């Protein structure tokens, strides 16, 4: 498995399904050495099995990304196995739909811990290793909801907006250390959580997809291709950037 990421040590969170799984498979095809995390061990095991069947190198280290101790151990596993960490893909997230006035304190904090705190924990844990080894690439899955808001996703959108700001700050602070930090804002993507959320949206996936720049929903594999590019040396001059991947061009209240 030779490619742009050959021999690179990479960590991916939320790797059991959707964009995380697709990215893990893409990274493996590009030659990366993978440590994969998810809160659902059975799903991560499936991703690892697929990669190994294709001749790739991957292990699972599962846990809850809202737990700083777990995230540190996840990063530590990659460093222990490969003596470095070259790539961190912060992908794990979830949302609890509801209009702002109906969001409970618990729902707000739960989403903050998974969507925002986990990204901070991952970046903070990876930075000492990346700076000591002379560089690295951090790529976070953000969201178009974090740029323009999203109906019934107020908490999720607010935390994703913070992720974007954190990405830009890290890029600025650690450029001199050779660390690049970027984010991807996928438009409507056909993942399980998105398709489940769209069950309550008039017109469903087809109508919602029309609001994206390309007039259709993206596939997880298409987003993974963007992540792989940002993680690779092909994007060596790119940092502090939020890549709009089939970005949603309109944000509206469903009628």
Question: How many separate domains?
Answer: 1
Number of strands: 7
**Major sheet attributes:** 7 strands, parallel
Shape verdict:
globular
State the helical fraction.
40-55%
Query: C-alpha Rg, in Å?
Result: 17 Å
**CATH fold topology:** Rossmann fold
Give, in order, the helices and strands. Answer: EHEHEHEHEHHEHHHE
- What is the CATH superfamily? NAD(P)-binding Rossmann-like Domain
Protein name: SDR family oxidoreductase
Pfam family, one: adh_short_C2
Organism: Streptodolium elevatio
Family: Belongs to the short-chain dehydrogenases/reductases (SDR) family.
Structural write-up:
This protein has 255 residues and is of the alpha/beta class. The chain has a single domain, classed as 3-Layer(aba) Sandwich (Rossmann fold). It has 9 helices and 7 strands; from the N terminus they run βαβαβαβαβααβαααβ. It has helices at 18-29, 41-53, 68-82, 105-133, 145-148, 154-174, 192-197, 204-209, 220-231; strands at residues 9-13, 33-37, 57-60, 87-90, 136-141, 179-186, 242-245. It has a 7-stranded parallel β-sheet, sandwiched between helices. The longest helix is centred in the middle third of the chain and has 29 residues, at 105-133. The chain starts with 8 loop residues before the first strand and ends in a 10-residue tail after the last strand. The mean pLDDT is 94.
Tags for this model:
single chain, 255 residues, alpha/beta, Rossmann fold, seven-stranded parallel beta sheet, 9 helices, 7 strands, globular, SDR family oxidoreductase
């Amino acid at each position: 498995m030779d490619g742009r990421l050959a021999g690179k040590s990479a960590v991916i969170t939320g790797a059991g399904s959707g964009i995380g799984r697709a990215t893990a498979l893409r990274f493996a095809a590009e030659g990366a050495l993978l440590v994969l995390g998810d809160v659902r061990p059975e799903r991560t095991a499936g991703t690892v099995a697929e990669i190994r069947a294709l001749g790739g190198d991957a292990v699972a280290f599962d846990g809850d990304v809202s737990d700083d101790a777990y995230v540190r151990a996840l990063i530590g596993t990659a460093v222990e196995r490969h003596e470095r960490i070259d790539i961190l893909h912060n992908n794990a997230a979830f949302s609890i739909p509801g209009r702002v006035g109906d969001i409970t304190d618990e729902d707000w904090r739960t989403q903050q811990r998974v969507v925002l705190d986990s990204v901070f924990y991952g970046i903070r844990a990876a930075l000492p290793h990346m700076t000591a080894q002379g560089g690295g690439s951090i790529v976070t899955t953000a969201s178009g909801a974090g740029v323009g808001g999203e109906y019934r996703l107020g908490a999720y959108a607010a935390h994703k907006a913070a992720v974007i700001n954190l990405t830009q700050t890290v890029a600025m602070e650690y450029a001199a250390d050779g660390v690049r930090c970027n984010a991807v804002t996928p438009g409507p993507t056909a993942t399980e959580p998105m398709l489940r959320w769209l069950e309550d949206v008039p017109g469903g996936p087809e109508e919602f997809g029309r609001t994206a720049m390309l007039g259709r929903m993206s596939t997880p594999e298409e987003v993974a291709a963007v992540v792989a590019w940002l993680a690779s040396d092909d994007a060596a001059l790119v940092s502090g950037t939020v890549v709009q991947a089939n970005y949603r061009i309109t944000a509206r209240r469903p009628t």
